[in-house]
Amino acid sequence: MGRKGERGHLKRKPAPKLWPIHRKEAVWTVMSKSGPHSRSGSMPLTLIVRDMLGLAKTGKEAKNIISQGKIIVDGKVRRDEHFLVGLMDVVSIVDTKKSYRILPSKKGLMLLPIKSDEAAFKLYRIEDKTIVKGGKLQLDLHDGTCSLIGLDDSQLSEEDEYQTLDVLQLSVPEREILGHTKLTVGANAIVIGGKNMGKVGKVTTIDKKPNQKRRDTIVTIEDTTGNQFQTILNFVFILGDKASSISVPEAA
User: Fold this and answer.
1) Tell me, what's the pLDDT at 159?
2) 3-state secondary structure of 159
3) Largest Cα–Cα distance in the chain?
4) Which of 6, 158, 223, 238 stands the most exposed, by the fewest C-beta atoms within 10 Å?
């Protein structure tokens, strides 16, 4: 009889490149399960606790820490060691009272220490939007969740205010809308994919062309030193209107 279901193990060599693990240190690594983020753009909670924070030496020790409810992700206690953590997620440690945000870097995903007031919100990129039953606007967000906005006849114009690739600032875990930043020239952004991943700067130009998919549009970004680089719109994550609303690594 053939194998049923997904594999329960994963070798280090074919593991996603964004994972901060040593490929030749051992043969096996943690197998991720389905979760809010895509597998290629996220990592299991065990890797956060063991490999990045160094709170455990083995996977078993990491599992014990997580099962005790000592790890909080986006304001909620997570007890599953396979839970996927990805871009912009806020990870808090109960015992140390420290918080971190998951950000992209040139080597993959990284943990950036943040203050408690910044750990109270998270940035979400709008991937799609739909009018659902009851006249509500459903915004599909980058981490697999969605946000519903009630619209009456006098607010139908607000539907056009929320465009794909715009960014919402939501409180965690209440998920109340604290802000909305549009993807426009002059906005501050971070690159989340491609060879320039992790770089931060100001959007200077958006080269729109007829009959071209919007996500493939070429965007020019200028960093604080005046250097310019280009990427596609799909790799741009807006951080704020002019300045970033979250902390970013100095070397980004």
Assistant:
1) 57
2) helix
3) 62
4) 6
In this structure, the chain runs to a length of: 252
CA atoms of 138 and 116, how far apart (whole Å): 29
Q: Which amino acid is at 247?
A: S
Query: Using an 8 Å Cβ cutoff, are 122 and 135 in contact?
Result: no
Residue among 248, 247, 183 nearest 219 (CA): 183
Encoding tokens for residue 199? 């770089």
- pLDDT band, residue 154 (cuts 50/70/90): very low
More confident residue, 25 or 96: 96
Query: What burial letters (b/e) apply to 105-131, b meaning 16+ CB within 10 Å?
Result: beeebbbbebeeebbbbbbbbbbebee
Burial 221-242 (b: 16+ CB within 10 A, else e): beeeeeeeeebbbbbbbbbbee
Q: What type of residue sits at position 79?
A: R
Buried b (16+ CB within 10 A) or exposed e, 11-28: ebeebbebbebeeeeeee
Which domains, and CATH codes, for the chain? Answer: 10-114 (3.10.290.10), 120-181 (2.40.50.740), 188-240 (2.30.30.30)
Cα separation, 48 vs 42, whole angstroms: 11
pLDDT band at 8 (very low <50, low <70, confident <90, very high): low
Phi and psi dihedrals of 216, rounded to 5? Answer: -95, 5
Measure the CA–CA gap between 37 and 125, rounded to whole angstroms. 13
Mean pLDDT of 92-103: 95
To which residue do tokens 């539907």 refer? Answer: 159
